[in-house]
TrEMBL record:
Protein's UniProt name: GntR family transcriptional regulator
Coiled coil feature spans: none
Superkingdom to which the source organism belongs: Bacteria
PANTHER family: TRANSCRIPTIONAL REGULATOR, GNTR FAMILY (PTHR43537), UXU OPERON TRANSCRIPTIONAL REGULATOR (PTHR43537:SF5)
Domain HTH gntR-type intervals: 9-76
Stored Gene3D superfamilies: GntR ligand-binding domain-like (1.20.120.530), Winged helix-like DNA-binding domain superfamily/Winged helix DNA-binding domain (1.10.10.10)
Keyword annotations from UniProtKB, A to Z: DNA-binding, Transcription, Transcription regulation
InterPro entries registered for this protein in UniProt: GntR_C (IPR011711), TF_FadR/GntR_C (IPR008920), Tscrpt_reg_HTH_GntR (IPR000524), WH-like_DNA-bd_sf (IPR036388), WH_DNA-bd_sf (IPR036390)
SMART domains (UniProt xref): FCD, HTH_GNTR
GO molecular function, one term: DNA-binding transcription factor activity
Length: 212
């Protein structure tokens, strides 16, 4: 087994990212026990930075620490999914309204370019999902509220535990593109309330796809 070489600076953060990607890719499945000894050996590190990394992931909601039982990948219930979508809809619809009201032409052009990338990658679900997330996070950044930025980033990490089933559902990518087109048009028209409503509808439809 090859040993992964990690730089000494901020070692626990690098370990956290390694584990985060394993969780997102479902190498570590929801509910799975995290074997600290095995992972430390694979990464060629001691258990101290690994445990610090697990604390980071626990704070993000990706890992659940159980007394005297260790760390487990968090399992997401239907209620969890509904709660996450509800909060994301509130925060991101507010962001959409703010961007529609105040974005510059260049900022809107950047969103239009991301939407074009979405269209170009509609036949590759993994690429589509990645670009979709960049679009949403860029929109949030343009709204310029650092507090909601962090909350949304953490909520989106938890959403990934659901293996973004909504986008893999037959026909959901085409539906999502149509919703994005309506949202983008509202932004370009500088119509805050229409942008808010479009984002809320986008999340409402996404929830139906994620939790039939």
């Amino acid at each position: 087994m090859s040993v992964i070489t990690l730089a000494p600076s901020a070692l626990y953060q690098q370990v956290a990212e390694q584990l985060r990607q394993r969780i997102f890719q479902h190498v570590l499945e929801p509910g799975a026990w995290i074997d600290e000894l095995k992972i430390a050996e694979e990464l060629g590190i001691s258990r101290t930075p690994l445990r610090e990394a697990l604390k980071v992931l626990a704070a993000e909601g990706l890992v659940t620490m159980k007394v005297r039982r260790g760390a487990y990948v968090t399992e997401v219930s239907t209620k969890d999914v509904r709660d996450v979508y509800h909060l994301l809809a509130l925060l991101e619809s507010d962001a959409a309204a703010a961007v529609a009201a105040s974005a510059t032409d260049d900022e809107l052009a950047a969103l239009r370019a991301l939407h074009a990338d979405l269209v170009a990658h509609k036949h590759n679900a993994e690429q589509f999902f990645a670009i979709n997330e960049r679009f949403h996070m860029r929109l949030l950044a343009l709204a310029n509220n650092r507090w909601s930025d962090q909350v949304v980033a953490d909520l989106r990490k938890v959403m990934k535990l659901n293996r973004h089933k909504s986008l893999f559902r037959q026909g959901r990518i085409d539906e999502s593109l149509q919703e994005h087109a309506l949202l983008l048009q509202a932004l370009l028209d500088r119509a805050p309330e229409r942008a808010r409503a479009a984002m809320q509808q986008h999340f409402s439809n996404g929830l139906v796809a994620a939790v039939p």
